[in-house]
Amino acid sequence: MNDKHLSAPAPAVQRMDKVVEQLCHKESLSRVWHTRPEQGAPMPSLDVLREVMERLSAAIFPGYFGVEPVWESLHYHLSANLDSLYRLLAGQIRCGICFSCQGEKGACEDCRAQSRELALAFLEKLPHIRFLLAGDAQAAYEGDPAATSPGETIFCYPSMLAMLHHRIAHELYALKVPLIPRIISEMAHSRTGIDIHPGATIGEDFFIDHGTGVVIGETCIIGRSCRIYQGVTLGALSFPKNEDGTLTKGIARHPILEDNVTVYAGATILGRITVGRGAVIGGNVWITENVPAGARITQERPS
């Protein structure tokens, strides 16, 4: 084929050149150009973080994810996986630190050592993360009569995928790793429709049945053995603002669910309120006040 047939006609080239000029204009770029990359700082990689999650999944649930290990060589298999994980995760944590850095002089001098220490501190949390996720799988099995085993929930249930990402993201968030926890959470959100901020504190044996449309805000605290259903929102009632009109950050604005609370489909619970131990919140109700322990809240029936 003649190359001239592959080239755009002159008028089209001129129009595309104009688009390029507009996209490269400083005024246009100023709103999207991140200051750190232009100084040589690395950006996080979604591809690398996907590999990190694949390796973490295989370490937490060996045999369910990745290559099925042989029991006799399990120690070697996990050691090799963790060695790769350490290097990959440390690199991505460094990217997150650089992305969030404001560029103060000397601020990044020790970021490589800091990222390695944070990666190692996170890996030390893996036994605890596995313990929590094993409890979540058992809760899913016991809470769903359709489940045939805890292993089935690990393989199949969107809530387990969401909690796998959340338990990992939450520990990174607790270590004050910037940006990376949010990326990991949004990976699960995009796949499951379950939106859990990495800052949310969720106790043992947690189960989200079905799951699509669930929203759990940053400052939520959820106790042990709680169960929620699809379409539940644990959100903020209002957003306080500073004097300059910007939203106030870092305040506790989401609900607290004490142990053994059940929230049915479509319920909305807003604000820094407490739902007492053992309470049951019915479907499609709107809650903005504290709920006593053991209460049963349902929609009012028309007279």
Walk me through the topology.
Blueprint: H1 10-23, H2 26-29, H3 46-60, H4 74-100, H5 111-123, H6 126-143, H7 150-156, H8 158-174, H9 180-192, E1 195-196, E2 201-202, E3 207-209, E4 215-216, E5 221-222, E6 227-229, E7 233-235, E8 256-257, E9 262-263, E10 268-270, E11 274-275, E12 280-281, E13 286-287, E14 296-297
Parallel strand pairs: 1-4, 2-5, 3-6, 4-7, 5-8, 6-9, 7-10, 8-11, 9-12, 10-13, 12-14
Helix pairs in contact: 3-4, 3-9, 4-5, 6-7, 6-8, 7-8, 8-9
Could you characterize the architecture of this molecule?
The protein has two domains: 42-193, Orthogonal Bundle (serine acetyltransferase, domain 1), CATH 1.10.3130; 200-303, Hexapeptide repeat proteins (UDP N-Acetylglucosamine Acyltransferase, domain 1), CATH 2.160.10.10. The strands form three sheets. A five-stranded parallel β-sheet has the order 1-4-7-10-13. The protein has a five-stranded parallel β-sheet with strand order 3-6-9-12-14. The protein has helices spanning 10-23, 26-29, 46-60, 74-100, 111-123, 126-143, 150-156, 158-174, 180-192, and strands at residues 195-196, 201-202, 207-209, 215-216, 221-222, 227-229, 233-235, 256-257, 262-263, 268-270, 274-275, 280-281, 286-287, 296-297. It has nine helices and 14 strands. It is α/β, with parallel strands linked by helices and 303 residues long.
